[in-house]
Amino acid sequence: MSKKKNRPHGHYCKICGEYKANEKFSGKGHAANICKACSSLSAAEKAAAMDMNRLMSFPTRRLSESEKKWLKAKMKDNCPEVADTAKEVYNVCFPHAERNAMKKQLIINKLSFKVHTEVYDRYGDMEIADCLFTIDRKSRILTMTDFHADSGEQSITLDGGKMAKLLRYIVHTLEIFKWEQDYCLNPDEDDLFTDNFFEEDIYVDSLEGKEKALTTEPEDRSSWWVQVEYSNHIVQNTSSYEDYLPERPEELYFTLLEYFEAEEEDI
Asked: How far, in whole angstroms, is CA 130 from its chain's centroid?
């Protein structure tokens, strides 16, 4: 014999979303599914409460067009609580929406990318990367300065299509504008500052000097940094003091390096 499903006791109020005893409803309220407490609310308060109830139980599955349209409209609701909750729900349902919207607005004008750390090539061999890449969209010039090579600075000029494709790849695929958030870039005070300042016989003869040393980043210690100037006048500066290249910065390094390896093969 199948078990009966447990049903909540009482009557459901569509405003507060609670099941309450029948005596909590008036005759008209019982028929309208509105309890006595909620019936005293203003029309705006009732609408906001109903919206909040729907938002709190909003589905996380693939939304229909009508559900998506309703959710977008509530993000601009006059009630701040409803609007803020709708934005939170939208970010859960569409976690990449903010990034995708930013991608459409960002066009790189200039980029500088410096790497000073160990990397592993496609064969798994470790090598020291100590170079600077620069990209200029207007002149279409890609430059690499290898500080450990005799060749020094090399430059190549890309045609318009290749330059546009490279810059779109950096924004849309590598999402360079989010690197500050995606990677832990702050130096570790214990490992970086204390070890380097006090284990390398650097003498600081006052408490004020020690505090200054611990709060000052050492020069040229970053393993990689990038500066990007976008066409909307936003300037991005990102640097890392980790002793390795994360996935996307490493991908950018090898992508840019391939342009000059291909150039050498053509010679």
From this structure: 27
What's the token pair of residue 64? 């229909």
Compute how many other C-beta atoms are within 10 angstroms of the C-beta atom of residue 27: 7
Angle, CA 50 vertex, CA 46 and CA 54 arms, to 5°: 170
User: What are φ and ψ of residue 44, in 5° steps?
Assistant: -65, -40
pLDDT tens for 206-239 read 444 444 443 444 455 789 999 999 999 999 999 9
Return the number of other C-beta atoms located less than 10 Å from residue 181's C-beta.
Answer: 10
Site of tokens 């005893």: 21
132, 112 contact by CB (below 8 A): yes
Question: For position 136, what pLDDT does the model report?
Answer: 97
Give the residues of the chain that fall short of pLDDT 70.
1-8, 184-220, 262-267
Given a contact cutoff of 8 angstroms between Cβ atoms, the answer to whether 116 and 129 are in contact is: yes
Reported as type and span, the H/E element at residue 238 is strand 235-240
Strands (E), 37-152: 108-120, 126-136, 141-146
Of the candidates 92, 100, 60, 122, the one whose C-alpha atom is nearest the C-alpha of residue 253 is 122
- pTM surpassing 0.70? no
